[in-house]
Structures are given as structure tokens and as C-alpha cells.
Amino acid sequence: MHEGEMRRQPAYMQPPYANRATRGTPNYTPSRLNQMVALADRRGWQILIHAIGDAGIRMALDAYDSAAAANPAPSRGRRHRIEHIEAVSAEDIPRFGRMGVIASMQPMHASPNQNVLEVWSGNIGPERASRAWAWKSIKNAGGRLAFGTDWPVVGLDPRPGIHSALTRQTAAGHPAVGFVPAQRLPLATVIETYTAGSAYAEFEDAKKGMLRPGMLADIVIWDADIFALPVDKVKHAVVTTTIFDGRVVYER
């Protein structure tokens, strides 16, 4: 694909897709991506790369690794990110923690609807599908997570994504055993990843993402103690009050 061309291409895979003789098409060659990332890194910019296939994710990690070897670290440090990370190779999971690359993921994408269970999983094959949205594996290997909704592709309401991260099920509770259930996260980790994790990912962790004196008072109050609820009931909690920068902007 030529630079600047905005055509959607299949995810770039290492072995070919399970059901077709193609690996997909990356936007850039590895050498071109390395060149671009090195230039931006040298200027102290934070870099975000969209990568969903295992080969694309590896290309992004390789580019960050190459830039770190070529350039001195900026004064504020590096917080480069990879967005989405749908099907990561097992070998690359520990690289996030080792390199300090943030895994910016959107749990609602992993909601196991018919498209994910049949089309997505069928396209990449069962071995790669076993590492679908492997956020727990990345965290356990020392990686830092940041969760979001991917609005406007997905709605702004975080509750469906929270449900997906907790249960690896649809809102209706399917499949009963969960989709790759080993990747479920506890509620405290999910909330921390949506809040403090996302603040860290944008260099805003000194002023938001936690309830502490001196930080921005961006607070949502729900009608239930979600930590006292069964994990499959958290999605039913209702917002009663929203406080933005210390001001009440919504009351139910």
C-alpha cells in the first residue's frame, strides 16, 4: 500500500491465513516503518501503531526496538503504544514488558459474537485464536495495559468492554465457558487499566487516572458497589452522578 492511502487491508500474518493463501498486506515495508519510527522517536514524539496480526505486531515491536537502539531516550521517557493487538505470537508477548511498549487494547473487540467465533477465528486458525486479545498474558509477562472503547467504532459506554474483560462472554453469557477464558482479568485490574492505565498511556498520569489529592476530579458514581456484584452483573450498574474536573455535570 502506498503511503497515505486509506484502504483497509487484511491483518498482516506470519504464516498465511488458515483459509487462504495470503499473509495480508502491511501498509509499509519493515525498512520504511523502521525509518519512520526512528525519525519520530528521535524527535521525542510518542508513537502509536495500529497492528492486529501477529506479523504486523512484530513489525511494530521491531521498529520500536530498532529506534531505541539508534536514539537516546527522550527526557520524559518513551511510552510508545501498539493499538488493538488482536492475535499476537507467543514469542512477542514478553517483549511488551521488556521494551516498555504499552498494549493499548479495546476489550469490546473481543466480545465473542458470531463474527469473532466463526469468521475471525476461522480466518486465522485455532492456534493463533488461542491467543486472541491476550491482555492477561501480556500483563503477566510484565507488560503495561491501557483499555479504551475505540469510539466511534464502538460506543463510549465502557460497561460492555468491562464485561468482556471480566468474563470473555457476550452480554447474553455466551459461550458458557468464555472465549479464551484464561485471559479474563479481575475487576480491580480492569478498572485500573481503563483509568490509571489509560492516563499513563497519554503521559497524563500525574493529574488523572486515580482518586488522589491534587489530581483532576473526574469521577463516575454508580448505583451499586460493583466490587460486591457477581462479575456477570457489573454491566448492569447505572451511572447516578458524573463529576468532571470537580464539577457535577450529570445527575440521574
Protein architecture, described:
- The chain has 252 residues and is of the alpha/beta class.
- 33% of the residues lie in helices and 12% in strands.
- It contains eight helices and seven strands; from the N terminus they run αβαβαβαααβααβββ.
- The chain has a four-stranded parallel sheet. A three-stranded antiparallel sheet has the order 5-6-7, with no helix packed on it.
- Helix 1 crosses helix 2.
- The protein is globular.
- The relative contact order is 0.10.
Give me the strand/helix succession. HEHEHEHHHEHHEEE
The tally of beta strands, per DSSP, is 7
Q: Structural class of the helices, strands and pairings?
A: alpha/beta
Gap from first CA to last CA? 49 Å
> pLDDT average, as an integer?
94
Give, in spatial order, the strands making up the sheet with the most strands: 1-2-3-4
Shape: globular
- Poorly predicted regions are 1-8
Question: How many DSSP H or I helices?
Answer: 8
Strand content: 5-15%
What can be said about this structure in brief?
This protein is of the alpha/beta class. The chain contains 8 helices and 7 strands, in the order αβαβαβαααβααβββ.
Question: What is the fold's blueprint, element by element?
Answer:
Blueprint: H1 30-42, E1 48-51, H2 54-70, E2 81-84, H3 93-99, E3 102-105, H4 114-124, H5 126-129, H6 135-140, E4 144-147, H7 159-167, H8 187-201, E5 219-222, E6 239-244, E7 247-251
Parallel strand pairs: 1-2, 2-3, 3-4
Antiparallel strand pairs: 5-6, 6-7
